[in-house]
Design brief:
By secondary structure, chain A is mainly alpha-helical. In chain A, 48% of the residues lie in helices and 12% in strands. Chain A has a three-stranded parallel beta sheet with strand order 1-2-3. A two-stranded antiparallel sheet of chain A has the order 4-5. In chain A, strands 6-7 form a two-stranded parallel sheet. Chain A is elongated, with a radius of gyration of 19 Å. Chain B is built from two helices and two strands, in the order E-E-H-H. Chain B has helices at residues 38-53, 61-69, and strands at 6-8, 13-15. Chain B is elongated. The two termini of chain B are 38 Å apart. The chains are: A mainly alpha, B mainly alpha. At the A-B interface, helix 1, helix 3 and helix 4 of A face helix 1 and helix 2 of B.
Chain lengths: 155, 72
């Protein structure tokens, strides 16, 4: 069995003009034809789902894990049905979170906040706009938070 | 790790050749992925069309991976 990283799949359906596309396709063709058994870790599959979530209708995001697995003829290891836990979250929770257009890393953070840190005052990030309205607590940049602490000062 | 082909006869998996292992040895069986249904093929084409309609959020694959994994 050969395992695929997320860039192999993302290149195939997103970057068809990349010079590596033909070689990538040949490898995927061998998996699709059954010449080689192909696999992907559930973590990597979720990464691909997060990448796609930005350009796929939200209602379709929950369908992506199964669709990717059958369309590319891949074994998913571990099988999310048998091993749904992921970093204190479950795979279905992460997929639902990615339905609001989030990368896997951000979705894990959002679900972990909702489950374990709901009482936190806020999340500080320089990427606040990407989290706005998508997580259970307020989101601020460090600058915004400082401004709230020390009104009128600009460090 | 040796890999042996086997055929599922509807009840158990039958190896294509004798196995040189002690009786009672536990083995892992890899169940191959199933084939997509017509509905799944239709949906997949719809999703690919949606992706083709909008440019990728990042201009290159490397940029996409950098954004996804928060590489510096």
């Amino acid at each position: 069995m050969i395992l695929l990283d997320s860039d192999v799949l993302i290149l195939d359906f997103r970057y068809k003009r990349d010079p590596r596309y033909p070689v990538n396709r040949r490898v995927l063709g061998q998996i699709l034809s059954g010449q080689v058994l192909g696999g992907i870790t559930s973590h990597t599959l979720l990464e691909v789902v997060g990448n796609m979530s930005f350009n796929v209708p939200s209602a379709d995001v929950p369908l992506l894990p199964a669709l990717l697995a059958v369309q590319y003829n891949l074994l998913v290891l571990p099988d999310p049905g048998a091993a749904p836990d992921y970093a204190g979250c479950t795979v279905p929770e992460l997929i639902a979170q990615m339905g609001v257009k989030m990368s896997l890393g951000d979705a894990v953070q959002a679900v972990q906040i909702a489950r374990f840190a709901r009482n936190a005052q806020c999340l500080l990030t320089w990427n606040a706009k990407h989290f706005m309205g998508k997580i259970a607590i307020p989101v601020l940049t460090p600058q915004e938070w400082l401004n709230q602490q020390q009104p009128g000062t600009t460090p | 790790m040796p890999v042996v082909k086997a055929t599922f006869d509807g009840r158990v998996c039958v190896p294509s050749s004798p196995l040189d292992i002690p009786e009672g040895t536990q083995v892992d069986i890899v169940v191959p992925p199933r084939k997509p249904t017509e509905e799944e093929n239709r949906k997949w084409q719809e999703i690919l069309a949606a992706l083709d309609e909008s440019p990728p959020p990042q201009p290159t694959l490397e940029d996409a991976m950098r954004a996804m994994r928060k590489y510096p």
